[in-house]
Design goal:
The complex is a heterodimer. Helices cover 0% and strands 57% of the residues of chain A. In chain A, the strands form two sheets. In chain A, strands 2, 4, 5, 9, 10 and 11 form a six-stranded mixed beta sheet that branches. In chain A, strands 1-3-8-7-6 form a five-stranded antiparallel beta sheet, with no helix packed on it. Chain A has strands at residues 4-5, 10-14, 19-25, 30-38, 45-51, 56-59, 62-67, 72-77, 86-94, 100-102, 106-111. By secondary structure, chain A is an all-beta fold. Chain B is mainly β. Chain B has no helices and eleven strands. Chain B has strands at 5-7, 10-13, 19-24, 31-38, 42-50, 53-56, 65-71, 74-79, 88-95, 106-107, 111-115. The N and C termini of chain B lie far apart (36 Å). Classes of the chains: A mainly beta, B mainly beta. Chain A binds chain B through residues 32, 34, 36, 41-46, 49, 51, 89, 93, 96-105, and chain B through 4, 31, 35, 41-45, 48, 50, 55-56, 91, 93, 98-99, 101, 104-110.
Amino acid sequence: DQQVKQNSPSLSVQEGRISILNCDYTNSMFDYFLWYKKYPAEGPTFLISISSIKDKNEDGRFTVFLNKSAKHLSLHIVPSQPGDSAVYFCAAFLGGGDKIIFGKGTRLHILP
Amino acid sequence: DAGVIQSPRHEVTEMGQEVTLRCKPISGHDYLFWYRQTMMRGLELLIYFNNNVPIDDSGMPEDRFSAKMPNASFSTLKIQPSEPRDSAVYFCASSLKTGVVTDTQYFGPGTRLTVL
């Protein structure tokens, strides 16, 4: 049973437009969320995170929104650039624990 | 720092053979994680260590899988005997300390395993 779900395996967005990647979770005890980005033949790299006490965190072109009541978070990339083409993993972290639970990932294609 | 180092980068073996994957974490990191990535299941945590001690191996799929961390700078993941369904990309990651919100995991480049 997947606790972190990324229901869109892939997404295509025009360069310069906004990319929105979505993630749902089932465990209300998760208190910290992360997004990782992965290029082919490389390991995932940390992108941005958000604590459950916040509903928004921004870092340059990347913004993560958290809706706790809906158990939903999203990553917004504005404007989208060719280098953003990658697989994006949503991940969640239980407070006091050590493990990060990852979603299956969403492949983002930025179209020229 | 060179980051997390994994070897080999690619491994092709035949069913029934033993496979050993290696990982060198970032120096000074307390935690080491082994993950497996497949199309069907995404990125799954197999096992993790804290200060060289295995903490949670509930993600290890079967007894054919074993992992060790003999010292702070080296870990192995062994599959014996290997089966075609073990074909995947295996990642090692390390972090300075989890349980602290600012800590993140740093991943190695992965080992792509193909079992024929």
